[in-house]
Amino acid sequence: MSPFNRDLSIPPPNYLINLEEPNGIDIDGHLNVLAAIVEETSNPDNTRSIILQHILPTTIEYIDLVNSIYPVELIIAIPYSADSWTVEQLKNKGYDVVVPKDIDDMLNNSWKLVENKLKATQQPLIVQEVGGYFANWTVELGKYPHFKGIVEDTANGLWRYQAAERERPLAVPVISMADTPLKHVEDALIGDACVYSLEKVMRSQMSAILAGLRCGVVGWGHIGKSVAAAFAGRHATVSIYDINPIVDMLAYAKGYFPLPLAQLLSESDIVMGCSGRRSIRVADLDDLKNGIILCSASSKDIEFDLKGFAEVCDIEDIQIEESGKCSIQKYTVRASKKYFYVLKHGTPINFLDRPLQGAILDCTCSELFMCMKELASKSHQPGIISLTDNLQIAVAKKWLKTYLDIFNTITAEKDKVFFFPDSWDWE
User: Boundaries of each S-adenosyl-L-homocysteine hydrolase NAD binding domain copy (predicted)?
Assistant: First the structure.
């Protein structure tokens, strides 16, 4: 029988029953999954926490929820993304907030702030950070027996810990979520956030749009893939470059024509660095198309050798960074008079806006908290550790029930997805 002719005297099947209308989008963007996980968490030994994070309006609820279980002793704000209003709000709530003067200050001195807290109390302490700022200082922090370890969020941060580990063994446990399936959910959307922010800058400050421009993507990893897709979705012509030849082959199979780096730089109107490494050096300046725009989707200011550029270029501030405006600097190579533009001092352009929102932000924050919970509740050997599959699956199951109503019904509770991975072999 067609559903349009169904006998209304017969009750509908369970999966059609909706006793309460779906709420749609939560326009306040609350971290509902994280709140549910926090509700289930205890802290019997009174473990404290330090958070090194991007301090944005969307960070406040995350910090408050973490603080409700693992009292936050200190917040270290990443300077290029620190929102001044949010910093003041957190201070008004009673948090100790430090904003280092620049990235070098963070890399060299953040560990001392943690050590000061370790000296001040014998209570257990964990650190949640973004970017690998403590990678070279684990021996110093590992001297304190009540320091339980570090949670690290990003690929760039993971690489820093791996590089440090090659020099000498890490002295504390480091739980990384950089290469987990849950983190890849976020990565798939970061690229669009970067291109969104770039497009806003171009429309409002450069009298231009992306449609019809040649856009190059350097680094075709998880974020590079989403940047390329976002450029293509805005009707730009997209080319990619990756140092890994296998990745170039995959990009070709996906319709993103790979080019040698020199050719990509000479033909592109815009290049977005997504490699998480130094992608454009002084040696590459001769290859740049005149007037090219350089911007980054990677942590810190790692993509472009700005210090090296400054030695051979004259720099003009076209737009200083201020509220609602992106900094734009014009670099002119003294020898050739070729010029190019750098946006936001080469730091991630998506932090001009709120890069993550709503359900996906909730997923990322929930995974971060699960990593903190793992460190706080169990003893781990020093070294790099990945969040286990079963903990990621637990987050995903809560997320499905919270954000997709069809998974939050009596019938759906019996679905094999909620018994995974055991249900994999069900017959």
Answer: 194-356
